[in-house]
Amino acid sequence: MMTSNNVPIVAIATAPGRGGIGVVRVSAPDLSVFIRQFFNRELQVRHAHYLPFPDSGGQAIDEGIALFFKAPHSYTGEDVLELQGHGGPAVLKRIMQRCLEVGRDIGINLRHAEPGEFTQRAFLNNRLDLAQAEAVADLIDASSEAAARSAMASLSGSFSNLVNALADRVVHLRMLVEATLDFPEEEIEFLEKYQAREELQSIQDDLQHLIRQAKQGMILREGMHVVLAGQPNVGKSSLLNALAGDEVAIVTPIAGTTRDKVSQQIHIQGVPIHIVDTAGLRETEDTVESIGIARTWAEIEKANVIVHLQDARSPNDELDIEITRRLPARTPVLKVFNKMDLLDEAALKRMQEQVEQTSEENGHEALAILVSAKQETGLDTLRHKLLEIAGWNPSAESPWLARERHLHALNSANEHLQMAQEHASHDDRVLDLFAEELRLAHDELCKITGQFSSDDLLGEIFSSFCIGK
Ligand code: GDP
Ligand code: ZN
């Protein structure tokens, strides 16, 4: 993926398929010759020109708007030309072919852009830092308004600014320490004189606040994977339909009909939740069905949360006890007793008492609730429990989107600051070790904005973009 940084590139920037408008984008260090060859005239910078896009024989391929952004004031930081034509696949392809042809004619090595290559250039030319570049992809991929809002906040730099501010404070403290290192007799006074420990503590407090927000931002970005598991006919498909609000799975009264997995993404308070419906778990001779059951176990292994659906009329069913025993101990399980509408008053009371006792089972906490998929009761409780298990704090703000990578760096920085704190409070305080931990903490923070980034990391981040971005 890592490709030469200043080879001219071109791509259709709008989504494939038909649309009112489609955009072809070209980026290169210098496009003035290209533009003259393409239009047989100059284009004024940042000016909307309405004109024909001619083919090699001078016939119009399309008519549209041409916009020319001169380096460095463009998305990529290079010269950028945007051609807005009609949004049909054939016409856009012809416009792009014409661009490649013009590139050949004038001897520049214009080629198709790789996914994310425009944004990668923006990063390499310091138009965006790495966290902002990631936010571009996250904004495009956002599946809820809350996620889009938070991605936009990251893109405009609110996350990067907080990280940079903390990094600056760490550097400042480190400079003070290093200035003292040459005068060993002053080491002890240094810590007191500059209130170094207090400042370090205050940096740590702010970092921990950032970590809490990053966790929220990560949940909002990544969401969670929930698997619906249980015996045939307990109402898994009905529950998925009720949660999704439309018919995605086939509901039938014949046991064992959901043989393949059906998955659906829903949102709870903007958090994306991927729910997988599975084939019912039971002893079976049917080979087709047993394949479905094997897949169910595979889904269970991958899930962040398992919803173990059971019939409220038989809460201590032997097969359910067996299923519980086989669930992976590391994954949280929510026991959901369905069909509560079929319980008589006494049974309902008994079940309500049973679900209230959250019990230690199988090595992890088993949460239990009562619902009716058919009458859509108990679903709000179910939604809240799912968010709770995800670690979502409904009252905390989630000001920006975060990735696993960011959280990892924040946590490592925090560990180094903790080590620094320990060196500072030790009897024979070792200032050079203190300074070294500050340096390591600073490096971790800088990884987030990409001041230190390997080609591998960049390749991984930008290759997940769509083409044309
Ligand atoms: P699955 O095999 O676990 O996916 O179960 P289905 O969703 O296909 O449901 C099996 C049967 O149970 C269907 O006839 C549903 O209408 C019925 N059912 C599902 N949930 C409820 C419920 O909460 N109450 C009642 N009374 N019936 C339900
Ligand atoms: Zn089903």
Automatic annotation (TrEMBL):
Residue positions annotated to bind K(+) are 233, 252, 254, 257
* Gene Ontology biological process: tRNA methylation; tRNA wobble uridine modification
Q: Does the keyword GTP-binding apply?
A: yes
State the superkingdom. Bacteria
Indicate the enzyme's highest-level EC class. hydrolase
InterPro entries recorded: G_TrmE, GTP-bd, GTP-bd_TrmE_N, GTPase_MnmE, MnmE_dom2, MnmE_helical, P-loop_NTPase, Small_GTP-bd
The entry's keywords: Cytoplasm, GTP-binding, Hydrolase, Magnesium, Metal-binding, Nucleotide-binding, Potassium, tRNA processing
Pfam families xref list: MMR_HSR1 (PF01926), MnmE_helical (PF12631), TrmE_N (PF10396)
Q: Where does GTP bind?
A: 233-238, 252-258, 277-280
What's in the GO CC field?
Answer: cytosol
Describe its function: Exhibits a very high intrinsic GTPase hydrolysis rate. Involved in the addition of a carboxymethylaminomethyl (cmnm) group at the wobble position (U34) of certain tRNAs, forming tRNA-cmnm(5)s(2)U34.
Family affiliation: Belongs to the TRAFAC class TrmE-Era-EngA-EngB-Septin-like GTPase superfamily. TrmE GTPase family.
The entry's protein name is: tRNA modification GTPase MnmE
Which organism is this protein's natural source?
Advenella faeciporci
